[in-house]
Design goal:
Length: 222
C-alpha cells in the first residue's frame, strides 16, 4: 500500500518525553501528583530520578513504587554547603535531566547550583510569594490576619523563594481555619498546579527569558 501523505507529514517525529528529576525531603505528595500526571499523559515528561536529603522521606517509597531510581544524599555527611551542593549537582546530572523540580525540598541551594540550573529548575512554596518566604507560612498567614492564602511556583534563583514567579493559586481564609486546615487546602491546590506548570514547561510554552518568566512569549506578571 502506498502512502499519499505529503513528505512533510512523514518527517514529523514524536518528541521524546522530557527527562525530569524531582528533589524531595519528606512525604512527597507533590511528587505523587507529578508521577500520576506523567503516567496519565497530562505531562509530556518522565520522572527519571528522585533525590532526597533525608533517608526516611516517604517520597522515596513513592518513587520506588513506580520503579523510579532514587538517590539519598544526607546533607549532614558534607562538611560545607558548597560540598553538599556539588554532590547534589553531580547526582542530579547523573540522570541527564532537562528539568529539575523541587517538591518539598527543604535545603537552601547556593548561588552556583542555582546558576547551573537557571531556567530549568522550579520550586513550589506554600504561600503567596513574595509573602512569607522561608518556614511556618500557614502560621504566619493566620497571625497576620490575612484574607487569602495559597501556593506559588517560581523558577529557582540564588534568592531564597525569590525567583521569577510562574503561577499561584489562592483561596479565602475562613474564620475557623487552623495551621493544619491551611496546610491541607494549600496542598490540594499544589497538587493541581504543579503538574500544569510542569506541562507548560515540557511543551515549551513556559520559559525563563532575560526579562523574566514568559508564557507563549508574553511576560508573566504575578
Ligand atoms: C509542600 O507544601 C511545599 O509547598 C512545601 O513543602 C511541602 C511538601 O509536601 N515546600 C516548602 O516549604 C519549600 N519552601 P510534600 O512532600 O507532601 O510534597
Amino acid at each position: 500500500m502506498s502512502s499519499s501523505l505529503p513528505k512533510i507529514c512523514q518527517k514529523v517525529k514524536k518528541v521524546p518525553p522530557l527527562r525530569i528529576v524531582v528533589l524531595i525531603s519528606g512525604s512527597g505528595t507533590n511528587l505523587q501528583s507529578l508521577i500520576d500526571a506523567c503516567q496519565s499523559g497530562q505531562i509530556d515528561g518522565e520522572i527519571v530520578g528522585v533525590i532526597s536529603n533525608k533517608a526516611d522521606a516517604y517520597g522515596l517509597q513513592r518513587a520506588e513504587n513506580h520503579q523510579i531510581s532514587t538517590i539519598v544524599l544526607q546533607h549532614q555527611s558534607y562538611s560545607s554547603r558548597d560540598e553538599f551542593d556539588q554532590a547534589l549537582q553531580q547526582a542530579i546530572d547523573s540522570f541527564t535531566p532537562e528539568l529539575v523540580v523541587l517538591a518539598g525540598f527543604m535545603r537552601i541551594l547556593g548561588k552556583q547550583i542555582a546558576q547551573h540550573y537557571h531556567g530549568r529548575m522550579f520550586n513550589i512554596h506554600p504561600s503567596l510569594l513574595p509573602k512569607y518566604p522561608g518556614l511556618h507560612t500557614h502560621q504566619r498567614a493566620l497571625e497576620a490576619g490575612d484574607l487569602y492564602h495559597g501556593c506559588s511556583i517560581h523558577f529557582v534563583t540564588a534568592e531564597l523563594d525569590g525567583g521569577p514567579l510562574v503561577a499561584q493559586n489562592k483561596f479565602d481564609i475562613e474564620p475557623l481555619d487552623t495551621e493544619e486546615s491551611l496546610k491541607q487546602k494549600v496542598q490540594h491546590l499544589e497538587h493541581i498546579l504543579y503538574p500544569q506548570v510542569v506541562q507548560l514547561f515540557c511543551s515549551q510554552r513556559l520559559k525563563l527569558e532575560s526579562q523574566g518568566a514568559t508564557l507563549d512569549g508574553e511576560l508573566l506578571q504575578l
